[in-house]
Amino acid sequence: MKVYYDSSLWDKSKGIPGRPQKINWEFENNGLRRIIPTIYHFSRGMVFDLITIIDEEKFNHFYNKYKDIEELSPIEHRLLEQEHPYQGVEIKDILINGKKIEEGYSGSGSFYSKLNGEQEELSEIKKAYSSILKDINCFNCYRYLIPYPEIDSRMEKLLRFFHLYKIKEIKFNTYPKNKFYPLEVNFEMSLGENLKEISFTHPTTGIEHTLHFQNPELLEIQDLYRIQAMYEIEPELAEGSNLQFDSSIHYGGMSIADTDSNSAASIGIIGGANGPTSIIIAGRDKDINYGQRGLPLHNALSMPSLEGQDVYKFILEGINIRIGESEEYGWEL
User: Fold this and answer.
1) Are strands 106-113 and 91-96 parallel, antiparallel or unpaired?
2) For residues 57 and 85, is the Cβ–Cβ distance under 8 A?
3) What pLDDT digit, counting tens, does each position of 264-277 carry?
């Protein structure tokens, strides 16, 4: 299989293909078997495919459970993603030969299953990695493009130029694992309100938390109007937990077809993905502003409007609760 300096599985790039270096690195993350069969070297960096083996029976059960649902709300779509048998590796940091990659890496993925029909790009992957995927009928392939770290050595630069640079060690750290719990608390706030209190019950502890909203401010962003309001939360959430407010524009529900094929297979985006506006609850710090009750202030955005108005709607979609810490994975030659 010829692999080019591109993170897309679909784009048929041209140029000089990468020099393969077989590593057959296998590890487990989130209870799933992961394999990186080969690294492809280029003068600027490397490309590799991360293969995740999926339990075919679990995927078929998932597919049959949701296949007749025509539309999903954003909350339903988020919960469905959590239930999907495939979960991506949420990579935070990557180190190559002991040097951290600061920026520029990217990735894209696709899902292979008999229920999706034969997919050209993944049929090629299945053939290229036949020693791993010969008898596998359900898997995900995520292709990563990783630029090399900066170097000063002239010899190392020459090795990279001729695609002779050898990877002796790869390490990466994942983001802590969170689980989303829906709250669906809706309320309105006007620009004239100096204080508004909203309460919710924590889905796992049963504790009632109160949000003290204050200092609403009108914002105009890309011809859309919304309120930004500061709030304190009492009692404070546990470390690693954060509230998620919906501040996006809704054009209708999402189809299950967007979830059972390629889109659901591409949940894990290297370097982390920015979803709907989330408010991270931090600990006390000298740089944090404090509100009327002496607690740290956080901000939330309302739903947008096409024109300025006095009252805006807020949607507290849910809470992300930390259920696992960051993990480190490494491979050495």
Assistant:
1) unpaired
2) no
3) 332 222 232 333 32
Sheet holding 298-301, edge to edge: 195-201, 208-221, 224-234, 298-301
pLDDT band at 329 (very low <50, low <70, confident <90, very high): very high
**Domain boundaries of the chain, sorted by first residue:** 19-176+327-332, 178-252+272-324
Model pLDDT for residues 125-153, shown as the tens digit of each residue: 999 999 999 889 999 999 999 988 777 67
Q: Who has greater pLDDT, 283 or 133?
A: 133
Contact yes or no for 226/246 (Cβ under 8 A): no
User: Sign (positive/negative) of CA torsion 40, 268, 253, 77?
Assistant: positive
User: What percentage of the chain carries pLDDT values higher than 90?
Assistant: 54
- Torsion sign across C-alpha atoms 34, 181, 241, 323: negative
* Distance of alpha carbon 229 from alpha carbon 197, whole angstroms: 12
pTM here is 0.77
Helix, coil or strand: residue 151: coil
Which range among 96-110, 131-145, 193-207, 229-243 shows the weakest confidence by mean pLDDT? 96-110
Q: Write out the two tokens for 262.
A: 């390629």
- Decide: helix, strand or coil at residue 129: coil
Tell me whether residue 300 is exposed, middle or buried, using C-beta atoms within 10 angstroms of its C-beta: 0 to 12, 13 to 18, 19 or more: buried
Q: Where are the alpha helices (DSSP H) in the chain?
A: 56-66, 74-83, 120-128, 130-133, 154-161
Tell me how far apart the alpha carbons of residues 21 and 127 are, in angstroms, rounded to a whole number. Answer: 17
User: Tokens for 300?
Assistant: 């939330």
Do the Cβ atoms of 141 and 122 come closer than 8 Å?
Answer: yes
Tell me: cis bond preceding 235? Omega within 30 of 0 counts.
yes
Q: Which residues contact 63 (CB under 8 A, 6 or more apart)?
A: 113, 115, 260
Written as one letter, the residue type at 323 is I
What is the distance between the alpha carbons of residues 299 and 279, in angstroms, rounded to a whole number? 7
Token pair 């390629």 is found at: 262
